[in-house]
Amino acid sequence: MGWWLTDSEGIVAFWLLVFAACNALRGAYCWFRDREARRTVASLIAGELHPVRASFLLGGMAEAAETAVCILLDDDVVRTSYGGELRPTRRGREQRDPALRALAEEIHRTPASTTTKLYEIVDEARYARFRELVESGAPRLRMTASGKSQTLMLATTMVTAIGMGVSATAAEAPVPFHPEADRTVWLYVCMAAWAVQWGPACLWPSEKRRRWKALDAFCKDRAESTRAALPDDTRRAITRARERPKPPPPQPRGRARSRSQGGSWADSVDVDSCSSCGGCGGD
Known about the structure:
The chain has 14 helices and two strands. By secondary structure, it is mainly alpha-helical. The longest helix is centred in the first third of the chain and has 26 residues, at 8-33.
C-alpha cells in the first residue's frame, strides 16, 4: 500500500484507478437502473406501436399531430387545401383510436367558415383532449439521457487531478519518471492526468443525446410508412402548415398618425418655412 501513496508513479496510478473505478461504478448503476426501460424498448420494437405514439416518442407533439392528420386524410375523414387548411368531410372511416377520434370530432366542430391548421393542433386549447390522450397513451419512457453521468464524470476528473497533487505534496514524492526535475513539475503532471481523463468522461451521454437508437429507427419507420400512404402533394400541403406564421411587423408611428388624421403628406408641409429659408426657390 505504501507504493500507491508515497511513490510518484504509484500516486499517478492510484488516482487513475480511482477514476476508472468511478466510471465502472456509474456504469453498473446505470445498467441496473435501466433494466426495466430496456425491457420496455424491446417490447415496443417487438410489438405493434401505434403510429401516432411512435411519432410522439420520436419528435414530440408536433410529429404526433402530423401523423394523426395523415391518418385522417388517408381515411377520408378530413381534406386539405394547397396551403394545408383542414376541413371535415361527411364521409370517412370511423376512428377506433381515442386520440384520433377526439381529433376528428374537434375538427368536425370547427365552424364552416374557418379551417384547421396543423400548428393549431399542437398548442391551441380546443385540441387539448387530443394531446392528453396522446401523452397518456404513449409509453412512459425517457428518450434522452439524463445528463448526470457526464457531469459527474467530468467533476471526477477535477477531483482526481486535485487529489493527485495533494497526495504528491503530502508525500513529498519526486516527479514521476524524472526524479531530478523540480517538484513544481507535478502541476503539469496533474494537468496531463486531467486531460487524459477528460476524453473518456466526455464519452458519457449528454442530456440532449438520444438513448435508444433502435427504438428511434423503429418509430421513424412506423411514422414514415403511415405518411407514405398519402400522395406527395398532400404531404407537402401538410408540411406548409407545420409552423405558425409570423405576425406582420408593426407600422411606423408617423405613418399611422398621418393616416388616422386623414390628411395627405402635402398638407403637413409648412410652406412658409420653406419659402423663408430659400429651400423652395423663394426670394
